[in-house]
């Protein structure tokens, strides 16, 4: 009777491919808001939430206020990744998505390149304008329950930008639900009204649903751990994130000279 045991790997590379066969990155779209200065706060708090779960996060910042990617990143995206801590890495990426645009205007190949370049990450937060996010995710998300994160402040300008983003997401991307972070001081009297107004306009004029809305105080110390409601929002975003199984070229990065093997064989939610 033939044994049902899998064949032994013939070399280190094959062994790694077997170990990481089910390893998946998860991409989360975070919509940039040029009228709100809270983008850094939002990304920082999400990283803290995922670090609390033992997950490693790469922040790809393609917002208008981000730095352009390094020159070396033009040839190898991994060269543009800065490691900030054991659980957080950062990549300045202003203007980067359009470098991957094909004849149809899709930038979806950027996801493959980022997956290969960040094989040690569990989560990738893609911070970009609504139109760029549609170009990046649109082709890959048909039939997938992707839910982007929108944020704003409590000012009219921030609300205008947030509504314009939801309009692009719903009409061009077909994403009919989103989560919202209201970044305003705890004492703000208009923050709740802005949340309600955005939800009402999104529903009545676009047919889009504001699923979860939380307030985030920009004056809270960054050292404070995310509360239970924020952790629940972060977990919901992860469940609806776009999964991406690592490809063959990702293992080339793991086996490159000087590369260290990841501490975990698979992320918590695989």
Report on this structure.
- The chain is an alpha/beta fold and 270 residues long.
- The chain contains eight helices and nine strands.
- Helix 5 packs parallel to helix 6 (191-206).
- The longest helix is centred in the middle third of the chain and has 16 residues, at 156-171.
- The two termini are 34 Å apart.
Give a topology summary.
Layout: H1 12-19, E1 24-31, H2 39-52, E2 57-61, E3 81-83, E4 88-92, H3 109-117, E5 123-128, H4 130-137, E6 149-152, H5 156-171, E7 177-183, H6 191-206, E8 209-216, H7 228-239, E9 242-245, H8 248-255
Short description:
It contains eight helices and nine strands. The chain has about 270 residues and is of the alpha/beta class. Strand 6, helix 5 (about 155-170) and strand 7 form a beta-alpha-beta unit.
- In the predicted model, the low-confidence regions spanning at least 5 consecutive residues are 1-6, 256-270
Write down the Rg.
Answer: 19 Å
% residues in beta strands:
15-25%
Question: How helical, in percent, are the residues?
Answer: 25-40%
List keywords for this structure.
34% helix; 270 residues; alpha/beta; disordered N terminus
